[in-house]
Amino acid sequence: MKKSLFTALIIILALAGWLQASPTAAHPAITYFTVDTLTDGPDSKLSDGECHSEVAQGCSLRAAIEQAAPISSGTNPVIISFSPDISGGIIYLDPTYGQINWTGNNVAVQGQTRNITVDGINLAEGKSVFSISGSENLLNYLTIRNAPQDGVQVGDFGENGHGDHNAITNNIILGNGFMGVYIHGGSSGGGGYNSIAGNLIGTSNLAATGCAAGEGNGLDGIYLDWNASHTVITGNRIGCNGRNGINIYAGYGAPTYTTIDSNLIGCNIDYALPNQGSGVLDQGGQYTLITDSAMSGNAQYGVWLYSAQHATIEHSRIGVNNYSTATLPNGFDGIYISDGATGNTIGGTPSTSDRNVISGNNTCGVRIHGSSNNTIDSNMIGLNADGTADMGNKFAGICMFNANGNHIGTPASGVTQYISGNDREGIYLSESNNNEIGQANQIGVGGGASTPLGNGLQGVMIVDSADNSVFPMVVAYNHGAGIAVVGDLSTNNAVVPGIVAKNDGLPIDLGNDGFTPNDPGDVDSGPNTLLNYPVVTSFSGTPVVVQGKACANCEIYLYQVAADPTAGGGGGIGIGFTVSDATGNWSFTLPVNPGQISLMAMDKQSPTIGNTSEMSPRLPTIYLPLARK
């Protein structure tokens, strides 16, 4: 319903532009041409206001578009339709005349139910079916196929600031040698505000269960370059193309403010229609918005943000079918953020309407490599849409390699991000520093934080990475340690989960090798310097005050024990923290009847990070004295 309404709106707005009256005229002077021949030929006499081709012995499509160019304008639109006598026919473009160069403005070519095909199979190399360099035109309900170059070119090819506000709607665009649709911005300010809506690009069948031979375009379904701005791509099905579904290429100037809304890219509702590259490849675009779309079933990535800046991906399905009820894996990662991509947001807060389902992919759900200052928040990663079933990615839910300063979940609780059910780790960091894993994350559980849907290995694995803040709200039911830190380069990692329990390994494991007892003087080295956990020296008073020793000027975190923290399955719930003095002494007033407690230390290296110890052995059950009447 959303797709059809959006597509209808595009067409209505476009027609409103063509039919808009001038300030001095009550009504526009509309010119109508009716194409009545399938033969291709040029207009015999331009500028006479009549569509006729002696070669074609009638009003050919080429002649109508040529005749429209000198007479069409905002107050004099031209509408080109097709005679019922040629319904179901094929217009083979004549190589003598080449591609159809559409230079007019406010021209509507209005097919019916895609039953007229314009075929470029006879054209010379490098030629497309349509090349639209005018503005405010409509190309609607045709089948366009077999050009050696592109099916439809739109944009500022004349470098004159035109080629904008065009609408390519409800067409079938198949089997072209290069792109299905090519949007070109140029350097003169044109090529903006074009829309591509309701088309089938690379497939002719809404209900296809796979790709049909000869239907995919040779390279990309849709390609944008050279400063193309404010392009709207909505309600399309884009599959079976030889490279990417959509390719946004900065080249000589970054495309900006591209909106990709309500598309199925690499799939239909339930079946994969794989593009042989990625569903969306954003190579240096700026402010791209991908919303309410499915990028699944593609041969490489669902979305690849390569050097992209300030993109947003929200409310989409990546690696699953359009209802998030079954997996449709992308060949590699669901989302790949690489090569300096920065400022991008996957999901967002505070509304669950921003949430993506990123599950079922053949490698990572989200991979960040060589990129910084990106945010991944409020998503379902490894689960179905309501968080009740495991549809895990084959590697980790989130993988980070040489990725610094990124944000996984918000630092405060709010809309929850679930990272669960993945075949390996929930989150994996390697050689990645200064990242934040915030309280919004629940790792290893389903919706409501009570359903066991653990990741196949650790909840969080940190390898040779430093200065990270790891503060997830819940880490539970994972089939390795809750949080493991390994490698001598892994230092100053602040690891303070709110709840960590019922993982197969330790709740927090420095070295991923089991419980590490304190050593005298705490002089050893290793992950997080193998920092000693705190010890208790006394209990006293009512309410009970616990006193003990730890590293000097350290934060001491206390947990109410759920099970032995020094053994697999152990851990607890955070109940508070205190700070030791310069000699390592600390005290804490316990809440009423905490039961057994465990302690963890962090030597503050900055206001937010420091080396964190493992959790201490549990202390005996503490019963507070009953108050006297």
CATH topology (level 3) name of the domain at 534-612: Immunoglobulin-like
The helix count comes to 2
Query: Which structural class matches the secondary elements?
Result: mainly beta
Distance between the termini: 68 Å
Biggest sheet: strands side by side, in what order?
1-2-5-8-11-14-17-20-23-26-29-32-35-38-41-44
Largest sheet: 16 strands, parallel
Uncertain segments are 1-26, 623-629
Q: Hey, roughly how much beta strand do the residues contain?
A: 25-35%
| Whole-angstrom Rg | 31 Å
DSSP E strands, number: 53
Gross geometry: elongated
CATH architecture level-2 label of the domain at 534-612:
Sandwich
CATH level-1 class of the domain at 534-612:
Mainly Beta
The percent range for helix content is under 10%
What value does the average pLDDT take? 92
